[in-house]
Amino acid sequence: MYEAPALFSVEPGKSGMLNRLWHCQMEKGYISDADIQSISDEWQLSKVATEGVVSFYHFFHRQPAGKFTIYLNNSITSCFKGYSRVLEALEQETGASVGSVDRTGTFGLFTTPCIGLNDQEPAALINFYPFIHLNALKVRKIIEALKAGAQPEDICDVIPENIRYLPPASRTVFFRPFEMGATLRRLEGATPEDIIQWMQKAELAGRGGAFFPTWRKWDTCRKYNSDVKFIICNADEGEPGTFKDRVLLQTQAPSLIEGMMMAGYAVGASYGVIYLRGEYRWLEHSLQEWIDAYRAKGYLGQAIDFLGGFTFDIRIQMGAGAYVCGEETALLESMEGNRGEPRTKWFFPVEKGYLLRPTVVNNVETFCAAARIVEMGVDAWLQRGIPGSPGTKLISVSGDVEKPGIYEIEWGMTIHELLERAGAENTRFIQFSGPSGETLSMDDKYQRISMLRFTGMDIRCGGSFMAFSHDREIVDILLNFADFFTHESCGICTPCRAGNFIVQRQLKRVQRGVALTSDLDALRDWGAIMQKSSRCGLGKTAPNAVITSMTKFRQYFDGLLDPDKSGMVRKFDMEEAVEAYEKYKY
Amino acid sequence: MAKEIHLTIDGQQITAEEGRNLVDVAKENNIFIPSLCYFSHIDPPLGTCRTCTCKVNGKYQPACTEKVKEGMEVEVNTSELVDMRKALVEMMFSEGNHFCPACEKSGQCDLQHMGYELGVSVSRFPHLFKDRVIDYHPSRMIMEHNRCIKCKRCVEEVHTDDGKKVFTYQNRGNETFVGIDYDEEARLTEDQAIAAMELCPTGAIIVRGVSRPQPFGSREFDLHSVKQEVVKPLRKHYKPGHLEKKVVATVSLAGCFGCHMSMLDIDTELLDLTEFITFNKSPLTDIKKFTTRCHIGLIEGSCCNAENVETLRAFRENCDLLVAVGECAVWGGLPAMRNTIPIGECLEEAYLNSFTQVPGEYTVPYHEDLPKLLDKVYPCNEIVKIDYFIPGCPPSATHIWKAVKNLLWDEDFSILYSEFKYD
């Protein structure tokens, strides 16, 4: 079982809840009644409280989930690339139907939202090891091998990085070689104020998609007095279609670690935690190796000479399958061993975050960029991108494109150019920044991707870029998103929990062709209510795609409506409605 | 003594102690901010139901999670915010399975109360009819998950003496429900259990053997509004054609005829009625088929079979205005209790596996003369356009009569708070 470094004894035992549950899950394939009892006893919880935590995360099971637990990704790209055939093949080969375990208890078959492999769909995790580009034939081979005694870790795919585009003339920021200590050496003699000033000058802003100025976050946190502060790396990249952090974790762990150390030094925090999403469990080992290498070199876990004897250490916290934990306060709740429910905004994490201590939460890409800014120098950084939006941005491109993968673009590239480079053809529908982002049509193709706002020609990108061609039904895409949000809402506030469910039902009406113009208008109004009244970003952004696509593809939606526009007598499928009763005809 | 600060709510200057809760401050100044999950003892506030959403300094925020500050500007009663709050309450009605006429909390239910205060006669959202269990396992309580609005009050407030939680959320997304710990629940004292039941804003937590002394109809929220006595009047809409004799049709679809009975309760006004109204197709006249076009069609009941759908369509074709009268017509009502269960299971339970089943006669009635059952019970507005909705089970006679008079002759219309009911 994973032991936290000694330094982390400041954390109460209950912070170990998720690790404890993971241990049970991995050891037995499920969490038993006895486990629930012993965990509850240990932390003086009622059993129902422990069950509440377990049931929140979809990688935790209360029933045996098979010797080999298979999670097939059901994101929209996967669906378009053969998901249903793969699922059929899996059911056939394993003998398990989806959501259950086969009779021998060997295979458990489940579906899961995006696993960060959207460029290589259909993809699945088997015992949390990745398998990509699945098809019926490959499924048969994999299952045969497993039946013959192979272990998933031995036969899983090596995941290519798929870095498709870097800025020309060595202007890449993220993917240049990085030597251990490259950033730290530059920090020698620098004060925390210096670092914050550099970040301010570099205009670095949160790369998770909110674009909050990094220097301000660090500076605010620095000003709160506390003997214990935390730096948390949000590696819970759950937005479907996003996989940039995966590639950074695969290839740029040192710059991530040094970025976190630098942040720690700047705000006076000695504890760093990487909250790694459960789907990236297969990356944990190499990441841990990097952390150990840093420790061995004397950079982590003890006084660091470069930083004037400052102490910093990092541990990894595994998430367990919950998109909402990418919301920073939900992430903090999850780390404390609770259900990942976002907090009310009484305080911001920089004041009272993890364990109610001042906490900085930043995205993987933000830390990597911060480390690179110091390593390459602020001036070099400022030369990239466009005025007001310096630097480069990683974009995960997937969908109906010839070359899906990672694109490191300088801010200022147009959507048109990105589409060209990715080899997108016949594009109709672009989902920008993931399902919670914006929907674009080809009318928007000359928009620039940048951090500038209110110019009317710029658009900010969190990291996901999915392009879909004219062959795809827009309503299918939206329904996939709606299913996702219905499933991933934490369930705590009404507009998100009920609203997403209602939007899903209404979209089904649209798909069945029984909706009226007034139904579309209603859908837009309902989405606006969710945007305004939801508790956290999930509910506030969930209806974005539905609302914007109804505006941008009005004609398409009009074509789906009930042709009887009066709405006096509504379309009603009598045959379908009496089908179940007809079975009793004798 | 905390510092005094000044804020404005809807333009009204208010002085209050700094840091107090906005909902409370507003209430003390006679400004009603609807709220459901808010419970003044729970700190920090829960902010789960979002019913109290207001605009604070231009940003949409729930009032319950706001502490008053100097210079704060709050908007409460703009038409947009009023509609948004109403929508959130409607969302809760659509999401749960709230059968007010069959609920022991009716009249003391905060959700129902908000529906009354905000004048919710029909939910704009489709009812979801998600199958939810009723948990009879706890020794002292019954958890009625159909009625739970996930406000989190019980999760935060109900503990055993040694500080363990009795209730906690389980699952997430649309599968979220409040789980109860059977062992801990058994350790609550009777008083603690009753306190939990009282804490619940709806009828989701029921303590066995504890009944409510006040009769239905004279309970806390039945008679008096905290806001105003008059529910929003119907807008005037019909071209006046004074004292022209009007033609009315009525029908009971999947209903119990209770609404028709209620119509007869207008007592002496029946005499006026016969002067100004003739009935065409109606059980009251026993006219089976429309013989003339009607000004208004009063629909009782929802659509549970093919014949109901045909009848309703005929009403739409032959009536200028259609009014859904009563809970069943409005959203499905009691017949829709079966909507959470597949029709096959319902039929088998009723005809194949019931105790009264005659051995050897294992049949579900099916005959060409029998109307075919639909897979679920459909509210009238999913079949045809409905012009007005009158809630209640049954609606009071005065409510129906006032609405009809308004619709037919454009008479002034206002419904008292005590006449607007779901039970």
Protein chains sharing the most extensive interface: A-B, 61 and 70 residues
What is the domain total for the residues of chain B?
A: 3
Percentage of residues in DSSP E strands of chain A:
5-15%
Tally of helical segments of chain B? 13
Second rung of CATH, namely the architecture of the largest domain in chain B: 3-Layer(aba) Sandwich
The description of the largest β-sheet of chain B is: 5 strands, mixed
Morphology of chain B: globular
List keywords for this structure.
A: 586 residues; alpha/beta; Rossmann fold; Ubiquitin-like (UB roll); 4 domains; globular; B: 423 residues; 3 domains; five-stranded mixed sheet; five-stranded parallel sheet; 27% helix
Topology:
The complex is a heterodimer of chains A (586) and B (423).
Chain A: H1 17-28, H2 33-42, H3 47-56, E1 68-73, H4 76-80, H5 83-94, E2 100-101, E3 107-112, E4 124-126, E5 129-131, H6 136-147, H7 152-155, E6 163-165, H8 182-186, H9 192-201, H10 214-223, E7 230-235, H11 244-251, H12 253-267, E8 271-276, H13 281-296, E9 303-304, E10 310-311, E11 313-318, H14 328-335, E12 359-363, H15 364-376, H16 378-382, E13 385-386, E14 389-390, E15 392-399, E16 405-410, H17 415-422, E17 427-432, E18 438-440, E19 448-449, E20 458-459, E21 464-469, H18 474-488, H19 494-512, H20 517-533, H21 537-541, H22 544-552, H23 554-558, H24 574-582
Parallel strand pairs in A: 1-3, 6-16, 7-8, 7-12, 8-11, 15-21, 19-20
Antiparallel strand pairs in A: 1-4, 2-3, 4-5, 9-10, 13-14, 15-16, 17-18, 17-21
Helix pairs in contact in A: 2-3, 5-6, 9-10, 9-12, 12-15, 18-19, 19-20, 20-22
Chain B: E1 4-9, E2 12-17, H1 22-28, E3 53-56, E4 59-62, E5 73-75, H2 79-95, H3 110-117, E6 134-135, E7 141-144, H4 153-157, E8 167-170, E9 177-180, H5 182-187, H6 190-199, E10 205-207, H7 220-223, E11 230-231, E12 246-252, H8 258-264, H9 269-276, E13 277-279, E14 294-300, E15 303-305, H10 306-318, E16 319-325, H11 327-331, H12 343-352, E17 373-378, E18 388-390, H13 397-409, E19 415-416
Parallel strand pairs in B: 1-5, 12-13, 12-14, 14-16, 16-18
Antiparallel strand pairs in B: 1-2, 3-4, 3-5, 6-7, 7-10, 8-9, 11-19, 15-17
